[in-house]
Design goal:
Blueprint (H helix, E strand, L loop, with lengths): L1 H18 L4 H18 L5 H35 L1 H10 L5 H19 L4 H12 L4 H11 L7 H12 L6 H8 L3 H20 L2 H12 L9 H4 L2 H21 L5 H18 L30 H4 L11 H20 L1 H6 L6 E6 L3 E6 L2 E4 L8 E3 L5 H16 L3 H14 L1 H19 L12 H13 L3 H16 L2 H18 L4 H14 L5 H10 L6 H33 L1 H4 L3
Antiparallel strand pairs: 1-2, 2-3, 3-4
Helix pairs in contact: 1-2, 1-21, 2-20, 3-8, 3-18, 3-19, 3-20, 4-16, 5-6, 5-7, 5-8, 5-11, 5-14, 6-7, 6-25, 7-11, 7-26, 8-10, 8-23, 10-13, 10-24, 10-26, 11-13, 13-14, 16-18, 20-23, 21-23, 22-23, 22-24, 22-26, 23-24, 24-26
Main location: membrane
Subcellular location: Cell membrane
Keywords: Cell membrane, Membrane, Transmembrane, Transmembrane helix, Transport
């Protein structure tokens, strides 16, 4: 009965979001109320404790939104300045072959946007670009969704790891220290590195998958074949490895902010350079069939290649150099590297003592400064903080401000960029606040005075799942993360919801938890392939709302591939590789 009641909030999310197709802005407040009811009635949580748990979630949501806002401001600043248009033209000038354009735009450009902005932005930005080039709207959405998946674990400059794994696992700090003698930050770094390992070993085929899906399903029905995709396999595999190698190295030797950005920039630069020199180009060009042969569901309200699809050309976009167009993101990477690597700077911008401290009777202790913190919420052992200066959001905004001078932008352009970013935050703000508040109520439920000794709602569900699946659990762990991401449309929220779940299940089965939680970070990424919110957003940008079911059905193919292969790797890493390579795995 404990398991059934604990699952109630998640069941409500599944029914409302997936079953009834309610928007998250309506469904998540109801799910949060359900979590409060379960916490109060079944877990004996006092009302003020439930309020404190909810506020932990609210502050986590605000930290995410701070990052997303900075990412969107920088993105829309480049779009207003014409820099983004120049970047896109730099890719498309390489070849008119649609397969090559899929690799360069739907893979490299989409993974870069995911690393910089995340939260559904790549498909919503890249799909219209491909539509403007003459791609069928449905093909553009499919290619963009598949192409960016390998980068999602490190989207929005590492948010799914930093906010999704690191912060929630602070509740298990003592156990993590006792298990491996490492801090939660070090532990989350290893989780991120293992996630990159799964991705690199599996996701290097995503360029080939994206090309294959488009050339097969967007040819005339009687002429469908994978031969056009197989004829560009050298380009696809080279692109996959060119991305995956620097991506994997960044995950292991830098931090979670960098893998997607560095993988896309380094891999894209190498691939474009070779293509421009005539290497890896296919012998013949592949194009879509004549327009009159297209199926009705391929195209929506916006005609591919039309003036409406292309939109206005920003001033200066054509003449701008590629280096200048990319320069704000180069500045961003430099700022992030310096603030993470130079100890005096990193210590200063994370120093919770640099600020004013005060207490309010009955509410708790507050710090306002370099870090905004709320401790001892309502007298309980509940705390949350926002390191707003250290968070990528601040450095994203700083890069956007510097971009104003770099591009010589007008006040109207700047105003438009910031207004567009603010407008895009309204729905995510409502959804994120309530979904993360719900998750924190579930996570914190076992720590309230008088709570039953069975543990929190999340711990109960994790132990029950581990007991039911036994040794096969690692093979299924990624699917758990994918399910959550599919429902809420966010790798970060999936990690917040099930990161502790996976950690507890791994301990219940005496498995290496870093490797298991790493599959969660991957699962939260691949669930975006069928996340209804991301699909709706992408379809809306190409005038094709109403084809959500068709997109989900097609994207189940790469989702199945990814989940099965990651599951197999997880079983090998947990049960086989420690015996084969003991020197590598003995620490786990």
């Amino acid at each position: 009965m404990d398991v059934i009641v604990a699952a109630l909030p998640l069941v409500i999310v599944a029914v409302l979001l997936v079953g009834l197709l309610w928007p998250a802005t309506r469904a998540m407040p109801i799910a949060w109320i359900a979590a409060l009811a379960v916490g109060y009635i079944w877990w004996n949580n006092p009302p003020d404790y439930l309020a404190g748990s909810s506020f932990v979630g609210v502050m986590t949501a605000l930290e995410i939104l701070w990052i997303v806002f900075g990412a969107l401001v920088l993105l829309y600043t480049l779009m207003q300045a014409g820099a983004f248009d120049r970047i896109n033209k730099g890719f498309t000038a390489v070849s008119d072959d649609r397969r090559v354009q899929i690799v360069l735009i739907a893979f490299f450009l989409a993974t870069f946007i995911e690393g910089a902005a995340g939260f559904g932005t790549p498909a919503a930005v890249v799909a219209p670009l491909m539509l403007a080039l003459g791609f069928p709207a449905l093909a553009a959405v499919i290619a963009a969704l598949i192409g960016h998946i390998i980068a999602v674990t490190y989207g929005a400059v590492g948010t799914p790891i930093i906010v999704g794994i690191q912060d929630p696992l602070m509740i298990y700090e003592d156990q993590i220290v006792n298990d491996g003698g490492m801090s939660v930050v070090e532990y989350s770094h290893e989780v991120a590195a293992w996630a990159a390992t799964y991705h690199a070993l599996t996701g290097f085929l995503m360029p080939l998958f994206a090309v294959g899906m488009v050339v097969y399903f967007f040819s005339p029905p009687g002429e469908r074949s994978l031969k056009p995709a197989l004829s560009v396999w050298p380009l696809c595999l080279f692109s996959g490895f060119a991305f995956a190698i620097p991506y994997w190295i960044s995950a292991w030797f830098l931090t979670a902010e960098f893998p997607a950005l560095i993988g896309a920039m380094v891999g894209g630069a190498i691939t474009v350079s070779l293509l421009q020199r005539g290497y890896l180009l296919p012998d013949d060009e592949w194009h879509f069939p004549p327009r009159e042969q297209w199926a009705d569901h391929w195209v929506g309200a916006i005609e591919p290649g039309s003036e409406e699809a292309n939109g206005p050309v920003p001033n200066g976009g054509e003449q701008m150099s590629l280096l200048k167009a990319w320069s704000p993101y180069i500045v961003l990477i430099v700022l992030l590297v310096v603030t993470r690597v130079v100890d005096p700077i990193s210590e200063t911008i994370t120093d919770a003592d640099l600020g004013a401290e005060f207490a309010v009777a009955g509410l708790g202790e507050f710090t306002i400064g370099v870090v905004i913190a709320w401790n001892e919420m309502f007298g309980y052992d509940l705390a949350a903080d926002i390191a707003w200066l250290n968070a990528p959001g601040f450095w994203l905004l700083l890069s956007a401000i510097l971009a104003i001078g770099i591009f010589g932008m007008s006040g109207q352009q700047v105003k438009a960029a910031w207004a567009e970013a603010a407008q895009k935050l309204v729905s995510p703000f409502i959804a994120l606040v309530f979904v993360i508040a719900m998750v924190q109520v579930m996570i914190q439920s076992g720590g309230a005075p008088g709570a039953p000794e069975v543990g929190s709602m999340i711990e109960i569900l994790a132990i029950a799942t581990a007991d039911a699946t036994g040794p096969l659990y690692p093979a299924l762990a990624a699917l758990i993360g994918a399910l959550a991401a599919a429902m809420v449309g966010s790798n970060t929220v999936s990690n917040i919801t099930f990161g502790g779940f996976q950690f507890t299940a791994a301990h219940e089965l005496d498995l290496p938890s870093q490797i298991v939680v790493g599959t969660q970070a991957v699962g939260g990424a691949i669930g975006n392939l069928v996340a209804i919110h991301n699909i709706v957003a992408a379809l809306a940008t190409v005038g094709l709302v109403g084809q959500e079911g068709r997109v989900i059905r097609l994207n189940l193919i790469p989702l199945f591939y990814y989940a099965v292969v990651v599951g197999i790797w997880a079983l090998l890493f947990v049960y086989v590789m420690p015996d084969v390579l003991p020197s590598v795995f003995d620490v786990y």
